[in-house]
Amino acid sequence: MARMKFLCDAERCIECNGCVTACKQEHEIPWGVNRRRVVTVNDGVPGERSISVACMHCSDAPCAAVCPVDCFYRTAEGVVLHDKDLCIGCGYCFYACPFGAPQFPQAGAFGVRGKMDKCTFCAGGPEKDMSELEFKKYGRNRLAEGKLPACAEMCSTKALLGGDGDVLADIYRERVTIRGRGGEVWGWATAYGQPAGAQPGAQPPAGAPGQPAPSTGQKS
Length: 220
Description:
Blueprint lengths: L3 E5 L9 H10 L9 E5 L7 E5 L8 H5 L5 E3 L5 E3 L9 H5 L35 H7 L11 H5 L5 E5 H15 L8 H5 L28
Antiparallel strand pairs: 1-6, 2-3, 4-5
């Protein structure tokens, strides 16, 4: 059976936040809760990269390890979900998660912030599939409809991929092979046309727009 995973290609992400908007729209997520967000490093300088971050549905999820009421569980597809009827809003998962995935609908001390909410990989929750109660608590169950997560389907550059981990690995392996020398073949240098030598390992490939074609050694 497929193991569902997310993969975000930092060379393709353009920080459009389309994935964030798609997630909030699809599940009618309340104000203040962000199941997905876009993080940018080196903002505004050469080497800037963005990546879409949410629950990564870990194989050995630290949130589940620290939960005192065992509200987390894993589906047959490897998606990490939780039962809001069991959640006590203690915040242990918030501190354990390295991705900042657990979200709470209210501010204040843990215990009064309400039930924890997070990315469900569009797989709903423990309630009956595609029921009104499931949608109200966890959002739309797109996997039960035979669809992939809305964030990945909405991504205009296909930087964010969601689905069978083996298939995602094959897609990314092919991309890396095509890039050849690394990120400069498809990424910042190609898009913005950095002068050769401006940043080591980031010059546009020969023959790219605005760059001289490779020399053949023959005189015209």
